[in-house]
Amino acid sequence: MTTLRSSSAVRAGAAFLASRVLLAATVALIAAVTGQGAVHHEWASDIWWLDRFSLWDSYHFIRIATWGYLPPGLDCCDQAYFPGYPLLMAALAPLTGGNVTAAGLLISLVAGAVAAGLLWTLVADDPRGGTVAARRAVTLMALAPTGFFFVAVYTEALFLALALGAWVLATRRHWWFAGVLAALATGVRVNGLFLAAALVVLYAVQWHGDGRPRPRLDVLALGLPALSVVAFMAHLHGRTGSWDAWREAEHRGWDRATAWPWEGLSTAWQSLMDSPDGWLAASRAADIAAVLLGVALCILLARQRRWPELTYLTLTVGVVLCSNLWVSTPRYALTWFPAYLAIATMRDNTAYRRAYAVGLGLSAALLLGATWAVATRHWLA
Q1: Which of 35, 77, 173, 191 is deepest in the core (most CB within 10 A)?
Q2: How many other C-beta atoms can be found within 10 angstroms of the C-beta atom of residue 80?
Q3: Are the C-beta atoms of residues 330 and 286 closer than 8 Å to each other?
Q4: Is 326 exposed, middle or buried (0-12, 13-18, 19+ CB in 10 A)?
Q5: CA–CA gap between residue 112 and residue 144 (Å, rounded)
Q6: Please, is 228 exposed, middle or buried when counting C-beta atoms within 10 Å of its C-beta (0-12, 13-18, 19+)?
Q7: Do residues 225 and 192 touch, judged by C-beta distance below 8 A?
Q8: Between helices 58-67 and 84-92, what is the axis angle to 10°?
Q9: pLDDT tens-digit profile of 311-361?
Q10: Which helix (H) or strand (E) holds 162?
């Protein structure tokens, strides 16, 4: 049975990789048909097709991978990005002829396939899951509206692969390995701390179920993710003299700050109303819709009594909900792996199958629209 499930997970990963290659080809085709020229940016690779997958935040990662943090003449705001992804880009660049952009794309493609295989495993192993539910979960991931970012020089694919790896290992009680992967995920995105908090809850659930009087030694693995953050903050402190350099860069570069949810909603709505064109309006509407969807998914997880998964998603959605900027949330949603699990393992009846089919069709249509927006260089958060 274990061998059969492993081979099914490999096939799921391979199918997902094929879907990303097809998506990448679609981006290149649309760009060619619509006459998109070369990308004029200091950190563009000058390879026409490759630069289709490097944009916006990608340039921060490329610069960090090339120069490191805070090179002469640049005191902000690359330090708002955690080092795991650009470090890996720099490490793998020799395999791509020294091209860090190509290395970043390669990481996203491979990591996305790994994430799909791990998601299949997670859902197939779940007491309420199975092979049908696993197939549904991976299909949801493949047709996510912002799925372009699984073929872009962005962190979503790598973070999701590490987070799912940590979660699968934790559910199988391999806590030291889970802690290491969670620490690596935290080195990629600060959201790894939310993953770490959820792993604490998962550990507590297992501990309570075992009826043990005290935790095992492997409880220490839960502290490993904090080491990633401390190491990064210590590095920035050595360069800037501030232990809060990461948050300062967030505020200075994007004016990001905490706010009451209704304040964030008001700002997001006003931004939607003030949109100068349809593409930007669609992006800002998607930001609002994604936050509200995240809240609904938290309610679904609570109804399913998935407390560890609820912890991760509540913290992940909550940090956006309590921010003055509801931006890029549809992209962040790619890393909400508990959402795939919760939706795919709902009670299977006629109403559910109809809703799933409608939702999948809508998601596919949005994916096509978002892919067109990216290929034609319109704004898409």
Answers
A1: 191
A2: 20
A3: yes
A4: buried
A5: 13
A6: buried
A7: yes
A8: 60
A9: 999 999 999 999 998 988 999 999 999 999 999 999 999 999 999 999 999
A10: helix 156-171
Query: What is the Cα–Cα distance from 247 to 52, expressed in whole angstroms?
Result: 30
What HEC string does 85-113 produce? HHHHHHHHHHHHCCCHHHHHHHHHHHHHH
pLDDT of residue 381: 55
The confidence score (pLDDT) of residue 75 equals 81
Residue pair 156/149 in contact (Cβ under 8 Å)? The answer is yes
Give 353-361's long-range contacts (Cβ < 8 A, gap of 24+). Answer: 356/136, 360/139, 360/140, 360/143
Token pair 């996203």: residue = 108
Confidence category of residue 3, pLDDT binned at 50, 70, 90 = low
Q: Tokens 């809060």 — which residue?
A: 244
For the stretch 34-61, pLDDT in tens is 988 888 888 888 888 999 999 889 999 9
Q: How far apart are CA 117 and CA 106, in angstroms?
A: 17
What's the token pair of residue 151? 């073929």
CB 155 within 8 A of CB 334: no
Which amino acid makes up residue 108? Answer: S
If we measure between CA atoms, which residue out of 188, 226, 228, 235 comes closest to residue 89?
A: 188
Closest CA to 110 of 4, 5, 192, 21: 21
Question: How far apart are the C-alpha atoms of 119 and 134, rounded to whole Å?
Answer: 7
pLDDT at 36 (0 to 100):
87
Indicate the residue type of 68.
G
Q: With b meaning 16 or more CB within 10 Å and e meaning fewer, what string describes 156-183?
A: bbbbbbbbbbbbbbbbeebbebbbbbbb
- Token representation of residue 346: 């709902």
How far apart (Å, rounded) are the C-alpha atoms in residues 22 and 59?
A: 24
What is d(CA 247, CA 116) in angstroms, rounded to the nearest whole number? 32
Q: How many residues does the chain have?
A: 381
202 pLDDT exceeds 70? yes
Contacts of 167 (CB under 8 A, 6+ apart): 122, 178, 195, 199, 202, 337
Query: What does the alpha-carbon distance between residue 76 and residue 214 come to, in Å, rounded to a whole number?
Result: 46
**What is the distance between the alpha carbons of residues 199 and 381, in angstroms, rounded to a whole number?**
29
